Amino acid sequence: MKKLLYAALFVLGATAFWQCDDPEWESAAIGTWGAPEVSFPIAGGSTAVKFTATKGWSISIDYPEGAIQKDWCTVSPMSGGAGDNEITITAAQNETFEDRTVDVVVHSGSASKVYKVTMPAKNELAAEVHEFKDLSYEEQIIEVPLVSNVEYKVNISAEAQEWISQVESKAEPVKDTLYFKIETYRTGLLPRETSITLTNTALGAYEQIDISQNPGPTLVVDPALSEIDGKKQEVTVSLVSSAAWKLTQEEATAWCKLTGTGPEGEKGEYELVFSVEEALTKARTAVFTLTADTMVRTITIQQTELGVENGAFIYKGDAATYSNPSVFEKSGNLIGLYTYPYKLSASQAELWAANSGVTGGEFRKGTLYVHFVLDLPASNMKQSIRGEGWGSTSKMVFKLYRWDTDYNTTLAGDPIITNTIPYTEGKHYDMLPSGKTVAPGEYMLSLEATDIDINNPQYWSWGKANEEFVKGAWCGKEEMTANFPEFYCVYDTKVNGSGQVACKTSTDLGKTWKDQADESFAALSKKWLGDYTVASNFNITTFDGYYYVTFDKAGDKGICVTRCKIAGGDWESWNGSGWSADGKATVWTSSTPVSLVGKDGAVYAYYMDGDNVVSVKYAGGDNWPASGQQSVGYAFTEDAPAEIDVKYHAGSSEYVATYVTADREIGTLTSTDGVRFTVADPLPVDSYYLWAGASGVRYAVDAATGTVKAKSYISYKRGEGTKGLYAFPEK
User: Is 232 left (phi over 0), alpha (psi -120 to 50) or beta?
Assistant: First the structure.
């Protein structure tokens, strides 16, 4: 109890001595309450600071050397005695663009205490010009003087960015100038307006500059060019004019006329409507000139030829070196045949469905299906199969289907090849039966494991590649998208020529054409390949139970003829005295295709020789090419056609030659004896349409009766616009 009492007396005594400026306290000391830093906002203000001193004290305000203002900070009181004290520090509003700092120092004897006082610089974002009204229509640059010491964002609306753009911008804490480019305004009748804002969201800074621009002399048409198809239709063109206007047509056309508004009008906004008739046989262009004051604009309407909606491309692509297609009926379907160049180097002989260099493949379980397209005959097909645990008795069943529309439809059909093959880990067996060659076409294969030692047959798949070859793959019903099986085909090793036969099939009366192989014509292509030939000027017809094909075998205008029984068999060619497998005799000399007609035991051949149609009549019999009587069937006085095609029409008992006229109509010549021809009327355009770039037309007749069917297909080559080989029926 006594110890506590002594302690209390000691504290009271010490306190009493501290508050007196007594000589007994030889050392000076200052005790502070709170932090030694004092911060003020830009607006300034006052704050109290408390401290304790052992002796009397005084205040000094020490500004940094070079400070512009030295009166913005005051302290009250500036002095006092020992003990507890309080002073008030006051800072005036900062109107400068500099940060402020000053030291408030408390001095007590030899002791001192520093209070660091700070204040941020004034934030400034001020545009000296806030409005640009009634700018002229010409392109120009406007200047916006600006005072700023903060970063800021220039905001121009997306719509206004079409005619206003900032061409120079700075964001420095000095006086600045922003430059904005104003585009020429000739597209409207009323002034256009917008506002540009300068913002610093964090600091709440905001400036707005309003801009308006008057239009200049305006004459705008949209669209200036209209590219339309061949159907009858209306074309609408918008017009904006700041003066009275007038529309004239450079060359009067009956098929394209202005209807409704016009052809003259006062200033304002209009919609010009042009009525366009159907374009049947050729593309065409109508040009209109629009004038207003000294301004001139052009409106152009380009129309392609109509074509036929129920026709279709047999082949789409640049077919400049392809033969015109021949279309005929077989087993209820339409067959389209043509020749095309195909050059293949040794390195291209193998078609891979996947890049074997890609790592990270995946295992698949179940029956494997691959949809693919062959351009040439394939003599070998292999599939890379991996399956851990497969034993020596493992087998696979390979099936090949002709592709039909989609996965399910194809599998609903019967396979054209079925083959059971063995499997051994690390060895890839040929999936085709020995000696079997697959003709060009579109297919789907299936590969199913059977007789295996385990229940998990697996197929290794790799990164997707070569989509021109493989079109799709499935494992069971699951379609593979990320990876494809590693599968490849080897083209027939004799492939190094350029003349190939393409066989397309249509099962829907010509609406669609597919790569469906026909064994007869695949054999024809293989024969040409085996002979290393360059086949061109191809034409095919049927009579006396045969397919007859004429073609330029070597590219030297020497036309040969080969044939095959429609019922099936091998191809044989004329050798000069008879038919043989290796016949190569030249029967005709022509740079154009040769068309054949068989009638009443006689055979007729037709081709172009300069401006003349050459007719050759042969006596009947199996060896009819051995002799013939040649004559000029017709001499063209106008531009001669590129080729002709002749068919016998039993209904009118006439031989009819068709060709393409200079006006892109289907011209005709007729003959009653098969030798001498006269000009007849063109086939009516309301029955047949020709697309641009046609060089020759062909059509089929009934093989049994020699009559032209009501829906006979005309086929030809399109060399302009969308190029390719096209076929269509009567309209």
Answer: beta
**Do 397 and 523 belong together in one domain?**
no
Whose CA is closest to 233, among 215, 259, 207? 259
For residues 249 and 380, membership in a common domain is answered with no
What domain range is 375 assigned to? 346-491
- Domain edge (last residue) among 272, 303, 334: 303
Instruction: Give the DSSP H/E element, type plus range, for residue 14.
Output: helix 2-18
Burial 582-614 (b: 16+ CB within 10 A, else e): ebbbbbbebbbbbbbbbeeeebbbbbbeeeebb
Q: What is the mean pLDDT of each run of 10 residues along the chain (731 residues)?
A: 37 39 59 81 92 90 86 93 92 88 91 91 85 89 86 89 79 67 86 91 85 90 92 92 91 86 88 88 87 93 71 77 79 79 55 52 74 80 63 77 91 93 71 84 84 56 67 84 72 59 78 72 65 73 90 86 88 93 90 92 94 92 90 87 89 87 81 93 59 69 56 66 71 45
pTM: 0.52
Whether residue 206 sits in one domain with residue 138: yes
Predicted confidence at residue 92, as pLDDT, reads 93
Strand pairing class (45-53; 268-276) = unpaired
293 vs 217, 243, 245, 246, 469, CA distance in Å? 9, 6, 7, 10, 62
Beta bridge partners of 666: 660, 683
Are the beta carbons of 303 and 229 closer than 8 angstroms? yes
Do residues 270 and 410 share a domain? Answer: no
Q: Looking at the structure, tell me whether residues 564 and 617 fall in a common domain.
A: yes
Residues 659 and 524 in one domain: yes
Contacts of 232 (CB under 8 A, 6+ apart): 276, 277, 278
